[in-house]
Amino acid sequence: MDSTDHAHSLSGQPRLNEGSGATRATRRKVIAASFIGNFTEWFDYAVYGYLAVVIARVFFPESEHALLQTFALFAVSFLVRPLGGFFWGGLGDRVGRKNALAWSILLMAAATFCIALIPGAATIGVAAPILLLVFRVIQGFSASGEYAGASAFLVEYAPPSKRGMYAAVVPASTAAGLLFGSLLVTLMYAVLTGPQIDSWGWRVPFLLAGPLGFIGHYIRTRLEDTPEFRKLVAQDVAVEAPTKQLLVKHWRTGVIASGAVLLNAVGFYVILSYMPTYLSRELGVGETQSFLATTAALVTYIGFIFGTGALSDRFGRRPILLTASALFVVFTVPAFLLLDPDTFLLVVLIQVVLGGMLSLNDGTLPSFLAELFPTNVRYSGFAVSFNLSNALFGGTAPFVATWLIGVTGSVLAPAFYLSAAAVVSGIAVLVARETSKEALRAT
């Protein structure tokens, strides 16, 4: 969008590039393609987290620390995500968002499908957890381009006044993947016996990744790349080495973005992925009830997300992100204190409230991060900063939470960890500029 378009956007008049020149049908396909990729990715991650206790029994049957080892594997797969961020981000900035997204989802789905085929430790011994680690690493590498690429794709296709709303599709699809995983696991616990889940039931969710990945790949290969990227190519200003450009010219923005991601990284995995394990293992809530509570939180979270995206378009990204950080600093510990295993409705209410607080951050973050970086390094900048924080603090959140409880002896340890993440994110957003009213920069 040029300066003329920007002036129109501020005056409320129709924009010259309203809708980025794309038809309504094209934008619907863009939304669908972005949705299904993130849905598949986080469905895969969700079922691993929700079935962590079962996976621990299958792959570490003789270990006294089986659950901790299972979460350690979950965390290790995140360590390759910054590397994947450089790879997929660089690819997306050089050859286009569409191509990077099409291949990343295919690799992700294949790795997840293969996890379902691994024999348990009782059959092949130590080779079982080793194979699980290999496929989890492939998952982490391929998934690292998904969230950032889909966000950049949507922002670059969106009408200027609705970038927050369009980008909110990404966290909504993420939550939808978690929701489907939670519903499926809840159903499995309701209809299958424990031995059935341990022997073959746990494999079913991982098998579903195969067809979902092929559907996503098919849709993405039939889309045209974003107007912003095509404009960059037409002007012959795309960079050949976006990673170098990012590290040399945009390192300060990258540091700010990584800090801003911290609340999302810790909050998302603690509240929406680790919580069923926390409720059942630490507080004694029944497994079915734990999943039902998380399911209720996910349903409301999805609704909140789109409202947050619209709010950020109206009031700006920084005010909404700062509000989210402040709420977590003040209310996280009291919320965990109120969790009562004997009062199921209270557990559900607290999870819904925490999910609503998190949606203020998560619904705003994709558009905020995409707008921080210019088009020629947008994919790289988003992917590296997002995956760096998630590698260090997101994927490790279940492991750290479990470890902190063991070290401190306090079930409130995850709440303090989450509050600390909110403080860091708030500081990063404070030093960032407001991006919602700016035109997207090419370079």
Which fold name corresponds to the CATH topology?
Answer: Growth Hormone, Chain: A
Strand tally is 0
How many separate domains make up the residues? 1
**Secondary-structure content class:** mainly alpha
CATH architecture: Up-down Bundle
Rg calc: 21 Å
Which runs of at least 5 residues are low in confidence (pLDDT < 50)? 1-19
Fraction of helical residues: over 70%
Membrane topology: Multi-pass membrane protein
Main location: membrane
Function: May be a proton symporter involved in the uptake of osmolytes such as proline and glycine betaine.
Keywords: Cell membrane, Membrane, Symport, Transmembrane, Transmembrane helix, Transport
Structure report:
The protein has 443 residues and is an all-alpha fold. It has a single domain, classed as MFS general substrate transporter like domains (Growth Hormone, Chain: A, Up-down Bundle). Helices cover 80% and strands 0% of the residues. The chain has 24 helices and no strands. It has helices at 3-11, 24-50, 52-59, 66-79, 81-95, 97-115, 121-124, 127-143, 146-157, 163-167, 169-191, 194-201, 203-207, 209-221, 227-234, 242-249, 251-282, 287-315, 317-338, 344-362, 365-372, 378-394, 397-408, 413-431. Helix 5 packs antiparallel against helix 22 and helix 17 (251-282) runs parallel beside helix 22. The longest helix has 32 residues, at 251-282. It is globular, with a radius of gyration of 21 Å. The chain starts with a helix and ends in a 12-residue tail after the last helix.
